[in-house]
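Journal club prep — side note

Before the paper discussion, L.F. wants everyone to see what a predicted structure for a comparable chain looks like in token form. Sequence:
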Amino acid sequence: MKKAAILGVTGYTGEELVRLLSRHPEVELITATSENESGKKLGDLYPPFPRFRDLILCTAEQALQQPVDLVFLCLPAIESSRWGKLFLDRGSRVIDLGADFRFSTASAYKTWYGTSHPFPELLEQAVYGLAEWRRQEIRGARLIGNPGCYPTAALLALLPFVQAGWVAEEPVLIDAKSGVSGAGKTPTKTTHYVEANENVGAYKPGRSHRHVGEIDQELNSHSQTPMRVIFTPHLVPQTRGLYASVYFKLRSAHSHAELNDLLRHQYEAEPFIRIVDPQLPATRMALHSNFCFLAAAAVKDTSYAAVFSAIDNLGKGAAGQAVQNMNLMFGFLETMGLC
């Protein structure tokens, strides 16, 4: 039985991790932290998960004194780096659900986060945790940068076509929509019920969202030619779920059937990918799961293709993917605790 810790358990991703770990047969959650709720029982915060109800929340400093096999970091940028380094030095493996270990270079991190990475040497050993594309690297990793929710949906849709050389040129267009939980638990005007209900709005359009750098990086790691995206996210009035519509110019003509056959060929052995053509994906398909639902279409009278991707932003876009990565790291069945 592996011993795990969650740093930052009171956010939405922390709660989702508790839900998933509560049904995992090979992992015991032995410590969970909250600087504001320290001293309370986990069961007081999350009554539906009785397995860990008597676990007493502690501070991160207190958690550091307990030997654990794996730490899930659900913390703000920079803070994740600090605690990740401390736990790595004590022999624990680390999965960061934030952005501190997603970039392969310190310069890219500074470009998109506006500050220097405090431990650039760790970026060399960190593995980007998109399991369907980096499975072998994840199996041997001590440090995982769990992908962001938008990049997960977009990359799973795009990478088969990029790798096959079917994408003609940049930019690739990504129109994405997320439920309000994707904005985090801290209340803001944007996420206030009166503002979010019956309302759809774009934010950080074009190339201003931090996830652009992450998507660019991974596309270019699988492409023979330079790749860039234009990405616009939207907040939609639902709690969870994320939908990405991706458009790109084809290098040569391919039919609707050929586009979907490529997806099926790429993902036929993947336990968490479903190609739903002739249907189109919908967020309700993915709710409370670690699945990604995909379908592609040729855009009539053009040389463009469209790919549609639906995930749960807290599942495949965060905690579910983290547990999938944990399973790979420890040699468990990849679907354990997730199906």
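L.F.'s comment for the group: The longest helix spans residues 315-330. Keep this in mind when we get to the figures.
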